[in-house]
Structure formats: structure tokens, C-alpha cells
Amino acid sequence: MSYFDKGKNQKERLDFVIKWANFVRSHPDEEWSRQQKVLINSQIKGAKKQLLSLKEYLSIKRVHRVE
Question: pTM for the full model?
Fold first, then answer.
């Protein structure tokens, strides 16, 4: 049994993309690019903390596969 609603997830993603595109169009480059920098840097920092071997990564991916 899966609690993942693919349709709902897809709609939420599309709504966010539209919202972000409108924000980018209506704000100066300096403002939204600064926010992107914070997001990207935090993702990189988090990824560096979670270094996994290929075997560990594939094991996790196999266990959490969404079908």
C-alpha cells in the first residue's frame, strides 16, 4: 500500500514552478539569485554531510523505491 499520490505531487510541483517563475519575473535578479544561492549552498552542505558509498546509496534507493 502506497500513501504517495503521484497526481497530487505533480500538481504541487507545477504550482510551485509557476509561483517561482512569477516571482523571478517580478523581482530583481539580485534578490532571487541570492535566494537561489542560499538554497543551492545548503543542499551542497547537506550532501557533503551525508556521504555514502555507492553500495549504501543503492541499498537505500532500493528500499525506498516509489512505484
Answer: 0.54
